[in-house]
Amino acid sequence: MPLQVKDYTWDQVESQVFLTVPLKGVRAGKADIFCTEDYLKVNFPPFLFEVILFASIDESKSSAKVGNDVVIFTLCKKESRMWEQLTTVEVSKEKLQKRRENAILAAQEKAQEAAKEKAIKKRENEKYSLEKTMKIEEHARKQIEEMKEQERRKATEELEQWKLQKHEEEKLKRKEELKHAKQKIEAEKRRMKKKEEAKIQNSDSQTSNKHSVKGGTAANMFAENYNDKIIPDPRSAGNIEVQFTPRVFPTALRESLIAEEEEWLRKQAEARRAKNANIPELKDLKEEEKNPDWLKDKGNKLFASGDYLAAINAYNLGIQLNNKLPALYLNRAASHLKLRNLHKAIEDSSKALDLLTPAVPDNASSRLKAHVRRGTAFCELELYVEGLQDFEAALKIDPNNKTIQDDAEKIRRVIQGAPPDP
Question: Which of 35, 102, 261, 344 could, after both became Cys, cross-link 336 (CB 3.0–4.6 A)?
Fold first, then answer.
């Protein structure tokens, strides 16, 4: 039996109560302190101190200091007034036990509410983070589109300038060719004229006249033929088609930006891999992986092989597909126990018990496992009273289970202050 501590001292002001409880050998981290708005308990084997307070306190603002063989409490009153005494009038053991159970239930409900609020806050933070990521990606996409549009306009302007420049060059070239052809024709005419004049001087008048006519005709014909041959026809107008090399990156290829494009693509691939590793998309699953029962069996095999973290991942995916299967929560609780994620094991066991309602003979085995696993997690957290309640609930399901009976007896001895068996 534990030793009840009676030689405590207390003092008060209108808003606070100062309580000093002497515990020989007490150290920080070794004393089990439990406090609600009207119940206070300190368990440091073999010593036990518990009291039902005269009025309600605000446990969230109250504090305790442990050390130097004493525990000093600073309790904040909900109502600022002087207490007539520290405890209520004497009550029977049954009423004290009832008050203790009510305090534990209230603490459990508060812990569940806190866990729900934490989960809601976590989902809100994840939603906020996702929205921020989407905004960043949208901003980056708009920047890429703007860069693409600027490059397109720039390329179009350069092409138009090139066309205009080529057109001007062609016009100048045609003018030069025409001018050069005219110069050749004039030079040929002068040469032919000098030749005809020389022939006229060396021949008689009749022959000169004949040759003069023929020469003139030949010269005129030669000039016309030469003119037709040298002067080209005007070129017809047309369009130049430019084909760009197809590529995956959304902007046009620039040699100066190749390093930046490769870095951007690498970061995008890493971000996608990280996201798929944490939250796998259901559309990427294989056909058999979309079956929660298959995932449960997969997790069981990984658990049996000792890969508890991989087993948890398999159960997580199964719960995403179907969150109404108690076996997934129950097996995930066992994996969390192996990894000493005790609070998560308690949460999963409680969720499994919620799904295993109503209590019928067909789900008795699953309810037994849920109580034992949650009770084990409570005991690992040194919450022996809560753990004993789960083991007693398991014994109600299977009263003849010798192992559970022995474990429950060990927990009772720890609560009473007796040293546990090795």
Answer: 344
- The one-letter amino acid at 319: I
Does residue 130 lie within any of the structural domains? no
Contact 363, 329 (CB under 8 A): no
Q: 145-152: list long-range contacts, CB under 8 Å, 24+ apart.
A: 145/250, 147/251, 148/250, 148/251, 148/252, 151/251, 151/252, 151/254, 152/252
Same-domain check for residues 292 and 320 = yes
pLDDT in tens, 145-158: 999 999 999 998 99
pLDDT digit string (tens) for 272-291?
455 445 545 455 666 667 77
* Bond from prior residue into 46 cis (ω within 30 degrees of 0): yes
Angle at 190 between CA 186 and CA 194, to 5 degrees: 170
d(CA 93, CA 362): 38
What pTM, to 2 d.p., does this model score? 0.36
Asked if residue 411 and residue 295 are part of one domain, the reply reads yes
Amino acid identity, residue 201?
Q
Same domain, 289 and 410: yes
Contact of 72 with 62, CB cutoff 8 Å? no
* CATH number of 54's domain: 2.60.40.790
Whether 295 and 398 map to the same domain: the answer is: yes
